[in-house]
Amino acid sequence: MISVSEALDHLFELATPLPTETVPLTQANGRVLAEAVAATRNQPPFSASAMDGYAVAAQGVVAGASYKVIGEAAAGHAFDGSVAAGQAVRIFTGAPVPEGAGHVVIQEDIDRDGDTITITDRLGSGTNIRPAGGDFTVGQTIAAPRLLRPNDVALLAAMNIGNVTVTRRPKVAIMATGDELVMPGENPGPDQIIASNSFGLQAMLRDAGCEARLLPIARDTESSLRTAFSLIDDADLVITIGGASVGDHDLVGKVAADLGMQRSFYKIAMRPGKPLMAGKLANGAMMIGLPGNPVSAMVCGQVFVLPVIRAMLGLGQAAPIEQTATLAHDLAANGPRQHYMRAKVDAGEIRVFGNQDSSLLTVLSTANALLIAPPNAPRMAKGTSVRFLPI
Ligand SMILES: Nc1nc2c(c(=O)[nH]1)N[C@H]1C(S)=C(S)[C@@H](COP(=O)(O)OP(=O)(O)OC[C@H]3O[C@@H](n4cnc5c(N)ncnc54)[C@H](O)[C@@H]3O)O[C@H]1N2
Ligand code: MOO
């Protein structure tokens, strides 16, 4: 059995970054920017008022100073003229500051009588003017690669960038296998259960920016598995679930090999997730064979599949980012496999759940962390700093 980090290295050897495509900005959220973009304008393009008030010359702004109001500037409507000493222009938030003005006195800080305003003794600090280019200037770049989030989309829009070059979404085909499985909503027989982790993985992969589709459930026969493999089309990654262990009905590895899969590795010193396999299918698609136990499949999704997806998206080859927390209780010594223990982190303290059976989705759903107990870790006392993956 290889270690988790050796397995990740092998997976990264198989995962090639995908080509790019251009999408309109409205489709950019959640995509990975593949080429740097540069602002095509300054923002703001003019010095702009940050408040509703009166634009006056920069000098002499003190309580008691009076001005004659000579015009108005609103957002989208500049004042056509300049402001001299003793003059003011009524101005609104977002309006260009007129020539000659260097201060916007907010309207709460003046008394107005007809066309005359007088600054009161409430005068606040600051000029209330946003300088031209104060946010960004022409040519300023957003570097790639970068996972675009809503704040980035707003920035790109402000930069007047209507289309962006992003990495194509990874196409993933998910194949649940097993005679015992039926789809949610169907009527299971007495010896059947509902396919679950395939749906969890699809959700995980869609969250990660993939086009993830479920293949029909394959039965535990070579012909059914072959049929399912024939439906993978142009998937970049095929994920099988179950049938990975050593039982008489665990046929995924055999059928994949018969179909020309070049195996990279099988079995990892990890718990849950031991019987994981990976390789390259005859058509060039990458394959990851996950163990069937629901928690095992989901944990392997976090530890292996998501890093593979990030690599395909051009975000680099990196293991999931770990955090540290303090053990809220003593923890028994670990066995030879790296154990990803379902746990709850709260205010920097981590507590593992009592039952770590890899079939328990209720426990996984309550957990917000996977505590990482390294292979052969000795007993750890309460208060020890430990590593975990947030989930
Ligand atoms: N003699 C041994 N037996 C087992 C070993 C071993 O080393 N020696 N390894 C165990 C470990 S660890 C795991 S993990 C499982 C993995 O088995 P498979 O990948 O072959 O998975 P299945 O046998 O098909 O299923 C296991 C379990 O999970 C349920 N399952 C499967 N697919 C789904 C699905 N899509 N949704 C919900 N539940 C699913 C299935 O009904 C089984 O209960 O092998 C151990 N055995
Ligand atoms: O490795 Mo299995 O995934 O322990 O349950």
Percent range for helical residues? 10-25%
Mean pLDDT: 97
- Gross morphology is elongated
Bound molecules: ligand LQZAQKY5, molybdate ion
User: From the helix content, strand content and strand pairing, which structural class follows?
Assistant: alpha/beta
- Terminal CA distance: 26 Å
Number of helices: 7
- In percent terms, what proportion of residues is strand? 25-35%
CATH topology of the largest domain: Molybdenum Cofactor Biosythetic Enzyme, Chain A
Low-pLDDT stretches are none
CATH homologous superfamily identity of the largest domain: MoaB/Mog-like domain
Q: Number of folding domains?
A: 4
Radius of gyration: 30 Å
CATH class of the largest domain: Alpha Beta
User: Which CATH architecture of the largest domain would you pick?
Assistant: 3-Layer(aba) Sandwich
- For the largest sheet, list the strands in their spatial order: 8-5-7-6-10-9
The biggest beta sheet is recorded as: 6 strands, mixed
Q: Tell me the number of strands.
A: 28
Short note summarizing the structure:
With 391 residues, the protein is of the alpha/beta class. Helices cover 18% and strands 29% of the residues. The strands form eight sheets. The protein has a six-stranded mixed beta sheet with strand order 8-5-7-6-10-9, with no helix packed on it.
